[in-house]
Design goal:
The chain is mainly alpha-helical and 78 residues long. The protein is built from two helices and two strands, in the order αββα. The protein has a two-stranded antiparallel sheet with strand order 1-2. α1 packs antiparallel against α2. The protein is rod-shaped.
Length: 78
Amino acid sequence: MKRLVGIFFIVQAIVTYLILDALNQLSVSISEAAVHMKTGGLTLSWSDDLPLVTYVFLIIIVILGIYFTLAKEKKKGE
């Protein structure tokens, strides 16, 4: 059972990272858009960095997943 939980944690952390990375690339704030008055050119700016807390949280989840995957289950009755 621990192995299953560990595999779930690892997969969940990887999928969460990929989703956040994809959403972070697409996020553009409309309020940060600026139109040049003479040429009509549109300038967009956005931050493509995920907060450090996100990386730390995902690394902790992966470490827990590895621990649960490699942990040996205790035998009952001994």
